[in-house]
Amino acid sequence: xxxxxxxxxxxxxxxxxxxxxxxxxxxxxxxxxxxxxxxxxxxxxxxxxxxxxxxxxxxxxxxxxxxxxxxxxxxxxxxxxxxxxxxxxxxxxxxxxxxxxxxxxxxxxxxxxxxxxxxxxxxxxxxxxxxxxxxxxxxxxxxxxx
Amino acid sequence: xxxxxxxxxxxxxxxxxxxxxxxxxxxxxxxxxxxxxxxxxxxxxxxxxxxxxxxxxxxxxxxxxxxxxxxxxxxxxxxxxxxxxxxxxxxxxxxxxxxxxxxxxxxxxxxxxxxxxxxxxxxxxxxxxxxxxxxxxxxxxxxxxx
DNA sequence: ACTCTGAATTAGACAGAGTCCAGATTTTGG
DNA sequence: CCAAAATCTGGACTCTGTCTAATTCAGAGT
Lengths: 146, 146
Ligand SMILES: [Mn+2]
Ligand SMILES: [Mn+2]
Ligand SMILES: [Zn+2]
Ligand SMILES: [Zn+2]
Prior knowledge:
Two copies of one chain form a homodimer.
Chain A: H1 6-15, H2 22-34, E1 38-39, H3 40-47, H4 56-68, E2 73-78, E3 81-85, E4 91-96, E5 102-106, E6 111-113, E7 122-135, H5 137-145
Parallel strand pairs in A: 4-7
Antiparallel strand pairs in A: 1-3, 2-3, 4-5
The first copy, chain A, binds a DNA duplex through helix 2 and helix 4.
């Protein structure tokens, strides 16, 4: 899929067994056209930018439906809010603790060695790596000059 | 330190530049004697088990003070609450998504290869690995029999 | 022992994220 | 066009966590 338009959002939703309503298309379009990690709050603001279209309940219902249907994934790094991620490929994250910004790390080529055996009777659901970063000494010094 | 008693909690607090008050000692003792990952809520319940001793405000104030003084660390895996971890060694976690249980993974011997270069002007604050697990097919089958 | 003072604690109001519900609206399909 | 099913909505509610102003506490100095 080259470009994300509201039109191919409907196809995308159908392909994940989701009935494409107006509100669902808008929410999907907010996430997929930007390809960014957004909180429910941010999505609400985007979708209701021009004129109020979608209620808080619908935003949350829709995001939870998208999660359930595995159209998007969630990223838990901030104790105050969940980030929703349109990228469902296996990948990891840089998390800038100062700005709150999340950046993808392609899982291609990243390997983890030496993890212990799993406890008895459980299976792995996924492995997340979060690299917490913050502006470094150099960057701070440069800001001082400005 | 072999055993954790309320007495050596006072020393521990002092060694981290924290004035050891009654409430602070109780909260530290709850975490260190159990060596478990606990939420603020759970700590509140433990500390006030017999008779009410410590207010909600003090529990949160104290946990944030402990964090600031690097006596404990926090673990962000559950969207609904923060877990407080008395283990400040470098380590990772198994997270049982079904039960909510957290288990330590010693960082000794675990290595990550192939992470990309850091973005310009930032430094690493830490790298967290979270292995999400859940009861497996076998375990479920065994439960069926019971 | 008594007093003074800064540190710590407290109850309760408050804020933000997210869920729930019962009623209204929209869509479907016969 | 109509009834049934699906979806959406405002607003009440819950939960985690913070804030504030008033109170209590500890301990140093007398
Ligand atoms: Mn919070
Ligand atoms: Mn929550
Ligand atoms: Zn991502
Ligand atoms: Zn731990």
